[in-house]
Automatic annotation (TrEMBL):
InterPro entries: Cro/C1-type_HTH, DUF5753, Lambda_DNA-bd_dom_sf
The protein, known as: Helix-turn-helix protein
Gene3D superfamilies: lambda repressor-like DNA-binding domains
One GO MF term attached to the UniProt entry: DNA binding
Source organism of the structure: Actinomadura hallensis
A Pfam cross-reference name: HTH_31
Domain HTH cro/C1-type: start-end pairs: 21-64
């Protein structure tokens, strides 16, 4: 559970909103149930707002601002948080990955960061727009360690587009090590890797990569774009991503044939 004591309003705008929502409610001597009645939702929704397990909806922020005469403070904060692109997404992703009991992912063009060898990651980061590739590499390797070096690692299921496997990054030697790493990971009891092959045709995964994480008693989704990522915490939004995952999964090769495909790909570099 993402408890209130873990919130840091100095690090995240959404944390700031959650913390101050509770402070304002208590300052107005309003119970959680009373606020829920005002917003037309249930008590658990207010609790999730105040613990950042659910992000405050704009329509609810507008009701709060009118009722508490905040001059539009919560509405403005939500707008600012939604527009912000301060790198906080990757920080939060790493935190959630480190606590997740289950990670499901779909990748369209490159090997997922959690699966990358240091050489592959270095080549990918150097080809991108990272200001400091070495620091980015260290963060990526730390993310991997936080997931795979735990006493009880999470269940990881990955769906990879054929392009992610065949795209050459860093040259033949780098690819040899990377494909070997994928085969090694695929043999772990808590890791499943499946490839969507070239002849799969059009499918919902073409919209872009995403990650589904189970953290405590909830699921959340992380979607990627060219310049930023975004978390989806509303259950309806997460469900839409989960359905996309299932649809892509239906088109992916089984685990055994995928491992054979990876071994055949490895032979190209030996």
């Amino acid at each position: 559970m993402y408890a209130r004591e873990t919130l840091d309003p100095a690090r995240s705008i959404w944390h700031f909103i959650a913390v101050h929502l509770r402070r304002y409610r208590e300052a107005h001597q309003m119970s959680g149930q009373a606020l829920a009645d005002l917003l037309g939702c249930d008590r658990s929704t207010v609790s999730r707002y105040e613990s950042n397990r659910l992000r405050l909806k704009l329509e609810h922020a507008e009701i709060i601002d009118r009722t508490w005469n905040t001059n539009g403070m919560f509405t403005a904060l939500i707008g600012f948080a939604q527009r912000a692109d301060d790198g906080d997404w990757l920080v939060e992703l790493a935190e959630f990955e480190a606590r997740a009991s289950r990670i499901r992912m779909w990748e369209t063009s490159v090997v997922p960061g959690l699966f990358q060898t240091p050489d592959y990651a270095r080549a990918a980061l150097s080809a991108g727009t990272a200001d400091d590739p070495q620091s980015s590499l260290e963060r990526r390797l730390a993310r991997q360690a936080a997931v795979f070096d735990r006493p009880k690692p999470p269940r990881v299921t990955a769906l990879l587009s054929w392009a992610a496997v065949e795209q050459v990054v860093g040259g033949a030697e780098v690819m040899r090590g990377q494909i070997a790493r994928l085969i090694e990971l695929s043999e772990l009891p808590h890791v499943s890797i499946r490839v969507v092959e070239k002849d799969a045709g059009a499918h919902p995964g073409l919209d872009g990569p995403f990650v589904l994480l189970t953290v405590g008693d909830r699921d959340l989704a992380y979607t990627e774009a060219a310049t930023r990522g975004r978390f989806l915490m509303d259950p309806f939004d997460v469900q839409e991503v989960a359905v996309r995952y299932d649809l892509v999964s239906d088109m992916a090769a089984p685990v055994g044939p995928t491992r054979a495909l990876l071994k055949a790909e490895l032979e190209k570099y030996t």
